[in-house]
Amino acid sequence: MSADVLAALWGLAAAFAWGSGDFAGGLATRRSGELTVMRVSSVIGLVFLVALALIRGSPLPSVRDALLGVAGGAFGVIGLITLYRALATGQMSLVAPITAVVANTVAVTVSALTEGVPGMLKWVGFILAAFGVWLLSRPEGTVRLSSSALVLSLIAGVTFGGIFSVTAQFSKADVSWSIVALRFTTVILIFAIIAFRRGVPALPKALLPYVAVAGICDSLGNVFFALAGQAGRLDVSAVSSSLYPAFTLFLAVIVLRERLQGWQLFGAALCLISIGLIVV
Fold it and tell me: How far apart are CA 278 and CA 118, in angstroms?
């Protein structure tokens, strides 16, 4: 199996985890504030990662990897706060693809600067993936995105692109504790923000299952993406993992009984074709 194929497979695993987490986190945020959701989900995600590292008997990370994890955690706090706030506006169908396309653009740019410009087929695959995600998430009729949701989506996209770029730089070793460092930084910063705001409302017990899914899936997505970055090029890893809005949409179809339109099915086909092109 080639490095790009392996990177794409791990990237798709990350996309599934992130898409599931965004769906659950977005639903919870509509009934509670984003900081309330993040406070609980980040702790659950941290406990999950620590347990995973202990079960695996993973070695402690190098200082370099630990610092990269801290940087990724800082990006993650900004990204999740802005993403959840944007999703809570009720315009999930536009927020998710904008965030994904911007994050993808940042990662592809960084990859071109650090790993060299990819081949023509990969560029075509990148473009088809972005267009496919947009079609998948495009709402029926005319929907206008508010200026505040647009700004939040752009900020979330840039910070997620930063996470892609940082996480892909982990050394070729067990990444478990490096991801713990990332998540621990996220938890510390979230609680610092909450303290600055003098607390947030308690999470309704009915939302705990959604928040737990969001925290665990977000952590798993980080692990899968780190493995993708170790396996192959950053741009391949980032583009394949940026398909997470597709999984968010499919969950909306299954759970919320939303119906897929013709252009969405065409977008799904483009996403499948794009994966084939970027692994060539």
Answer: 9
The DSSP secondary-structure symbol of 89 reads T
Report residues of the chain scoring pLDDT below 50.
none
Q: What pLDDT shows up at residue 77?
A: 81
Q: Which residues contact 91 (CB under 8 A, 6 or more apart)?
A: 143, 145, 146, 149
Handedness of CA 124, 129, 132, 137 (dihedral sign): negative
Place of tokens 């099915």: 265
Q: Which helix (H) or strand (E) holds 88?
A: none
- State residue 203's pLDDT score: 87
Record the pTM. 0.84
218-244 confidence digits (pLDDT tens)? 899 989 988 998 888 888 888 888 888
| Region at 141 (left for phi over 0; alpha for psi -120 to 50; beta for the rest) | left
The torsion angles phi and psi of 187, rounded to 5 degrees, stand at -60, -45
Contacts (Cβ under 8 Å, ≥6 apart) of 275: 8, 12, 125, 129, 240, 243
Domain boundaries, the chain: 3-278
Spatial distance between the Cα atoms of 18 and 60, rounded to a whole number of angstroms: 25
b/e per residue 224-242 (b: at least 16 CB within 10 A): bbbbbbbbbbbbbbbbbbb
